[in-house]
Task: structure prediction
Amino acid sequence: MSVGYVPVQWNRHKRIYDAVLAMAVASYLAVFILVGKSAFRGPHAISDPILVMRALATCAFLMLHVVLCIGPLARLDRRFAPLLYNRRHLGVATFLVGLLHATLAIGFYHGFGRLNPFVSLLGSNTNYTTLSAFPFQVLGLGALIILFLMAATSHDFWLKNLGARAWKRLHMLVYAAYALLVMHVALGALQTQRGVWAASLAGLGVATVATLHLYAGWRERRRDRRGAAMLADGDTQWIDAGPAGDIPNNRARVLCASGGERIAVFRYGERVSAMANVCAHQGGPLGEGKIIDGCVTCPWHGWQYRPADGQSPPPFTEKVSTYRVRVRDGRVQVDPRPLPPGTPVEPAVVADEVVTTNTSAAEVAQPIGVACNVTEPAHVAVQHA
Ligand code: HEM
Ligand code: FES
Result:
């Protein structure tokens, strides 16, 4: 989390993730080049630099699709959540592969004349008013600059320095980079004989990314609109979170308060606590995480919070808002007014029968709360990207 600047710390998970990523990229490039060489022979043979340039280009473009699809997939099905961990490494790798493609393209198409390759790139084609001869390379350059900015600020150090809001805005530019690249491919393809299939593949990619985002957003809005029943009790309006037994042990049910903010209600053994659903790191959905070693663990990069006070365990200092909770007739009720981040709230206690019918003995015996294990939680150890 935020204990000063710490360089990237490699743990076993990061090493495995990056090794798999490097192998996948190398395999893709090898297969693309081998298939390209055997499919195009004789007079149709493609020169090696162009084949490598295309292999790198399609690889980077594919990787960007994966980066963009992981978010909605994880929102639709939490089995995809582990892919979110280290998504930034995938983003940085996408930039590096795109950079290699661009370097080769600039060297090959603009490197042999009298002009500086960059001057040639920006000045040799100024047909900005025609589609069929549009200088599509400039769109690739725009996308590359955005990917560079994102890769350069991907470390948590920059998240802290820029502030979560500015950092998030900067990283939302990935969609602008994506739009530029779709046009880079489409307008570039218009200028080659491979126009139809290249444009169709790009279209399929756009349709996949758009459908996943729209579907995940629609599902969330529908869940929020369904809302939860409000119960008036004196001055307090409590939200009914349903039967305590319906919340799986060490997991949460997510409620939407009338103002739109989401509240994650966790049950752990016979206790129930509620906290804001938004992680203090990059806004990950805490309610989609689980309690590991007594701490609510964000599904995105594993930041942890104690369920009873929303505070990260020492030495970390992050906090999220907590909410008052009670149990009435076996149903969990939440006061939707957020308490200041890190405010301790006595967990509500659930009747024994709920615990015994929905929780295994081993789960109940698990230590809860005060001393979260921050040295090596189950799936993440080091929080710095
Ligand atoms: C300065 C930046 C860039 C330049 C000058 C550039 C240049 C080019 C050129 C000349 C081509 C046509 C290659 C050919 O078919 O002969 C191309 C295609 C392509 N580029 Fe770029 N590019 C840049 C950045 C990027 C980036 C950052 C990405 C992806 C992350 C990308 C993805 C693609 C893709 C997917 C194709 C189509 C490949 C194919 O048709 O097989 N480009 N680019
Ligand atoms: S968003 Fe990164 S750990 Fe929660």
Observations:
- The chain is about 45% helix and 15% strand.
- The pocket of protoporphyrin IX containing FE (ligand 1) is lined by residues 50, 53-54, 57-58, 60-61, 64, 98, 101-102, 105-106, 109, 121, 137, 140-141, 143-144, 181, 184-185, 188-189, 192, 194, 198 (CB under 6 Å).
- The first strand starts at residue 230 and ends at 233.
